[in-house]
Specification:
This protein is α/β, with parallel strands linked by helices. The chain has 8 helices and 11 strands. The chain has a single domain, classed as Acetylglutamate kinase-like (Carbamate kinase), CATH 3.40.1160. A 9-stranded mixed beta sheet has the order 4-3-5-2-1-6-10-11-9, sandwiched between helices. A two-stranded antiparallel sheet has the order 7-8. The radius of gyration is 17 Å and the shape is globular. Bound molecules: uridine-5'-diphosphate. The site of uridine-5'-diphosphate has 24 residues, from helix 2, helix 3 and helix 5.
C-alpha cells in the first residue's frame, strides 16, 4: 500500500516557461500533456487542486516595456498570455478525461469564467481542476503573487512552485559550481538573502498567512505525487 496523502488541497504555480519545453517560445504539447497527466493523477488520488499559470512563454509586461511599450498595456498582454496558457492546459486535461475550469481575473466571458472565490472553491471541492488565469488582474503584479493570493484565498494547505531546478540554491547552480541547495528556509531568509524563489510580494503574503511553499523540479516525472505522499523534495519555505 502506498503512503497516505499529506495534503487535502494544494495550489500549484506553473510558470509559462514550464510549458515551453526545449523551445524558447510558446507551448510544447508533449510538456503540457505530461504536466496535465501529473495534475490529473493527484486529483484522482483525492487531492483538491488549483493551478496558477504564468505567461512568460508568450509575453511579459516588463519585457514589452523595455522595448518601448506602455507598461500597463504590456502587463495586460502578459495577463492575456496566461489566459491562453490556461486554455491550453484546460484542453490537455479534458482530452485526458479530467475536469477543468479556467477562471480569469479579468472578464472574458466568451472564453472563461470569472474568478469568484466561492465558486472556485466549489469547483475544487467537486474535483474540478481550477486553472486561475490572468494573474491578480492588476498590472505591476506577477503570477507568483497571484499564486500566493489564490493559495491563501482558497485555503490551500500548500503552495507548490514548479521549476526546472531541484530547489533553491545559495547561488545560481548553472554558474556557480560550489552552490548548495537549501532543504528548508524561512520566509525572512528568502527576503533577506534576496533568493530567487518568488517575488517579495508573494513571499510576504505567504509569510503573513503562514502558507507553506515548496519549490520543486517539475521536469522529473512523478515528483508532484511524491510530494503529496510526504517526500521532502526540493526546498520548503515556511
Ligand atoms: N501580469 C500582471 N499582473 C498579474 C500577473 C501577471 O500584469 O497579476 C503580467 C505581467 O506582465 C507578467 C505577465 O503577466 O510579466 C506574465 O506573468 P509572469 O511573468 O508572472 O509569468 P511566468 O514568469 O510565471 O511565466
Amino acid at each position: 500500500m502506498s503512503a497516505p496523502l499529506n495534503y487535502r488541497r494544494i495550489l500549484l504555480k506553473l510558470s509559462g516557461e514550464a510549458l515551453m519545453g526545449e523551445a524558447d517560445y510558446g507551448i510544447d504539447p508533449k510538456v503540457i500533456g505530461r504536466l496535465a497527466d501529473e495534475i490529473i493523477e493527484v486529483q484522482k488520488a483525492g487531492i483538491q487542486i488549483g493551478v496558477v499559470i504564468g505567461g512568460g512563454n508568450i509575453f511579459r509586461g516588463a519585457g514589452l516595456a523595455a522595448a518601448g511599450m506602455d507598461r500597463v498595456t504590456g502587463d495586460h498582454m502578459g495577463m492575456l498570455a496566461t489566459v491562453m496558457n490556461a486554455l491550453a492546459m484546460q484542453d490537455a486535461i479534458e482530452r485526458r478525461g479530467g475536469f477543468a475550469r479556467v477562471m480569469s481575473a479579468i472578464q472574458i466571458h466568451d472564453v472563461s469564467e470569472d474568478f469568484i472565490r466561492r465558486r472556485a472553491i466549489r469547483h475544487i471541492e467537486k474535483g474540478r481542476i481550477v486553472l486561475f488565469a490572468a494573474g491578480t488582474g492588476n498590472p505591476f503584479f506577477t503570477t507568483d503573487s497571484a499564486a500566493a493570493l489564490r493559495a491563501v484565498e482558497v485555503g490551500a494547505d500548500l503552495l507548490l512552485k514548479a521549476t526546472k531546478v531541484d530547489g533553491v540554491y545559495t547561488a545560481d547552480p548553472a554558474r556557480h559550481k560550489d552552490a548548495t541547495r537549501y532543504d528548508t528556509l524561512t520566509y525572512d531568509q528568502v527576503i533577506e538573502r534576496k533568493l530567487a524563489v518568488m517575488d517579495t510580494a508573494a513571499i510576504a503574503l505567504c509569510r503573513d498567512h503562514g502558507m507553506p511553499l515548496r519549490i520543486y523540479d517539475m521536469t522529473v516525472p512523478g515528483n508532484l505525487m511524491r510530494i503529496m505522499h510526504g517526500e521532502a523534495i526540493g526546498t520548503l519555505v515556511s
